Amino acid sequence: MLLSAFLGAVFLAADADRAGLLEVRRAFRARTLATGCLAGAMAIGGLLVLRADARSLFDGLTSGRALICVVLSALAGLATLALVRRGRFAAARYVAAVAVAAITAGWALAQYPQLLPGELTVAQAAAPDATLVALLVSAALGALTIAPAQLALYRMAVTGRLSGRSETS
Prior knowledge:
By secondary structure, the protein is mostly helical. Helices cover 81% and strands 3% of the residues. It folds into 2 domains: 2-121; 127-169. A two-stranded antiparallel ribbon has the order 1-2. α2 (22-53) crosses α3 (55-61), α2 runs antiparallel to α4 (64-85) and α3 (55-61) crosses α5 (89-111).
């Protein structure tokens, strides 16, 4: 939930900046800095709790490929805060997304091959091959249908063409 608040504040600060809404930008800048600092503190606190209560997950997060993701997330989080502090909101959007994606990937890598530690592995949870093939084919067809429209909508939202204002005007 905290990461969603952080991402939302970063994205809304960038939107407010692009729209020239100085008071709104200032408010979301403050929220970004506050939620970013709080998320960092919670991450450190969470690691301490994991060390005491879920040692295998802690060990997974602090070694190997998962550790690379944890470090990348921390660096991207700090970079996001620096960019927001300097008023570079557009760049901060991308760096914030990297921070959140990296910690999510790190958590998955730390648990691998377990989905539910001690209960369920990835192999045990896998569907039969025929089901997986059907799922991949239908997802690919759906992506071919939907992706162009999603990209166009995202491009229009980012450039301000949905609000009636354009960055080029």
